[in-house]
Structures are given as structure tokens and as C-alpha cells.
Design brief:
The chain is α+β, with helices and mostly antiparallel strands. The chain has 4 domains: 40 residues; 166 residues, Alpha-Beta Plaits (2-Layer Sandwich), CATH 3.30.70; 58 residues, Orthogonal Bundle (DNA polymerase, domain 1), CATH 1.10.150; 144 residues, 2-Layer Sandwich (Dna Ligase, domain 1). The protein has 17 helices and 15 strands. A 5-stranded mixed β-sheet has the order 8-9-4-10-11. The longest helix is centred in the C-terminal third of the chain and has 21 residues. The termini are far apart. The N terminus and C terminus are likely disordered.
Amino acid sequence: MKKEKSNKKIISVCRECFSTFYSKVLYCPSCESLNVISHKEIEKLDIAHVDCDAFYASIEKRDNPKLKNSAVIIGGGKRGVVSTACYLARIKGVRSAMPMFKALKLCPNAIIIKPNMSKYKDASKKIHNLMNQMTPLTEPISLDEAFLDLSGTKKLHKKIPAVLLAELSKKINQEVGISVSIGLSYNKFLAKICSELDKPKGFSLLGKSEAKKFLHDRPVEILWGVGKTLKRKLNDDGIKTIGQIKEIDIQEIINRYGSIGSHIYSLSQGKDLRRVIPQRPIKSISHEITFENDINNKEILKKKLWLLCEKVSKRSKEKGLGGQTITLKLKTKEFKLISRSCTIEEPTQIGELIFQHSKVLLDRENDKIKYRLIGVGISNLKDSELCDLYDLVNISKTKNAKIEYAIDDIRNKFRQDLIKKGRSTALFIL
């Protein structure tokens, strides 16, 4: 009987000292902090989404305190795009993936910093290690965000998930030097939405009893899987809010929109059956570059392409993977995206082979078009043991593989730039 009575009470957790109170409080009675979260279902919520606040920019501000009160944009040159921006820049309207020239118009006094991926990866590794100490059911989504399943942690740590997450937030701040925003709910979809509600340094909760009401008036585009095309189709059919989806018979939704219709209908009901999967398989490995000036010279484009193929090859070898599908990506000066792919007989991680196939794709494109971006990637990934097998027929292919692995060995023992192929050197002559 006591347990049933306590479940009806609102439970509060202090985010500073982690004290728990079986009542709603405005401040912590133990440490007097105002940083308190309360919810009547808090003990039952165990799926979390943790998102680092303006991750790249936060790392740069951490390492250079002089930037604390400055608008910071992480990105490349005037012709590049915004990787991320701090909240001071976001207030001015700067957003991720925005062209740099637009960002600078909105925030002309912003400090531009080129991405330092090795530094960001190091910070990300530390953060994910802290998450893994709390639960093995951690699903990384990117360097700066992850889902956590905390359903079994109460028995292990003798604490409810909300307390563990409050501790995690403080540990990340103390040990990594940045803040995170947390969403806690009963499924992945709602946890993700919650983490966006109160940035930065937020901690939002959503229970089953309030989910449908919470979702009712929100736009359809927040539903997982609703992109620009589906949003446009839903809007054209007069469906702009999630509540309008719920009012339509599920069979009609499926008839109109196919299998995705069933998916968005379930989400509109606050249902999401996807589990938190600790190891998400890598689907592709790619690299791209945005030029300072538009290029329509195929020979220059090929030299740029070769450097990208080398990078893709290096990453694929590091990850022990190879790709059977090779994709060339181009973006015109009008921002039109062109994507061309080919599937080869067996997977490869050899830069020379990736280059040869992507070069063929490039040769087919219009010589008169000017391009602002080129990229290359491999997908349909396979384990390295299945890649670049010895070929008795295609001797040159086997020879190229042997040469490249030999070069890799020398680079690993000495310096990465010690040996360059002729086309790499030629790039710097032009």
C-alpha cells in the first residue's frame, strides 16, 4: 500500500547535489539550488537522449576562454557551410549547414574557426566512455549525441535514471568542460524531442499520461521520418499538426502514404518500438571538399578527387571495412546536388581503385558546369577480409593493392606525408 501511495506523488531530483524528494519543490532543501526537476512519472522514465550543446563551438570556447562572450561559427571559408554555431550566433539566425556567406551576413562579427576533428573526436570519446560507465545500452548517433537505455540501472546503481543522468551531466561538465541537454521519456522519439526543448543545459521529461496532449498541436515535421517531401505532401492534404494525423483512420493513412504512414501514425500516438542498439553499424565512409572558387576544369577536379579517395581509403582501413558501392558527389555553383554511384564486383578499401571508378563517374559529367563541391564515398560495406582479394586475372589490380599497402606501412612507421603519388604532388604545382 505504501508503494502505491508513493507512486502517486511527484518526485523531485536536485541536479546539483542529486538529492531526491517525494514532493514537488521549487528549490533543493539540501543545497538550496533552484536547479531541480520534478515529474509524477519520473521513476518510470528510462529512455534518454543526451545532446551536447553546440558541441564544436563549446570545445573551442573551452580551450580559449577569451571566446566566451563572442559569437563563434565553426566552418570553412566564405564558400563553405556552417558545421555548428554557438548560441550567441544562433540568436542571430545562424544554423548548421547554412552557407557561410549567409551566416556572415546574419552575424558579421562572428569569429570563424575551422573544424578540428581530432580534438572533437577526443572529447566525444571521453563523453561516450562516461555514458558507457552508466549503462552498456548506449547508442551513439554522432560525435555529440546518443540514446541511453537505463531500464536496468536502478537495480545496478540503486538510483533512478533521472539521478544518474543528472550525475552524468555534471561529470561531463567537470571532466570534458562542456554542457549537455537531456531528454528523458519512455521511448526514443519522445526522448529526442525532449532534449531539444530547453537548450542549453536543459533537462526535460515527458511521461505517458501527457504525451498525446503534448504532441497534439506540434508540426508534423518533428515526427521521425518526415522530411521535406513528406511534409509537403501532408501539408497539401491539409495535415499540418500531429493531432490531425491521429484523427484519421490508420488504414486511410497507410493507403495514402504507404508503410511510412503506419510509422508516423504510431509516433502520433506517442508510440515508438525502436530499441536502443549499442553498436550501430557504419553505413558509409566519405569525404568532401568545398572550393574557394568554382571549378569546371576536369583535371583539377580529378586531383582534388584523388586526395579525397586517399582519405576515404585511410578511414576504411582504420575501421577494417571496404565498400562495394562507390559514390561521387558534386554540387554546382547554384547549389544543385549531383550524386552518381556504381557497384563494383568486390568490395575495396584501396584508394587507387576508389579513384579509378569515381573518375569514370566524373568523366561523364558536363565539362561546362562549374562546381563548388566534390565528394566521394563508399557504401555497401564489408569486412576487410572480404576486400581486395588476390586476383589471378587482373594482375594490375593486385599490384596496385600491394603497392598501396606497402606505402601505408612506410607511412605508419615514419610520417603520413613521407610518400606521395605523382598526382598528389602535381596538385600543388597547379
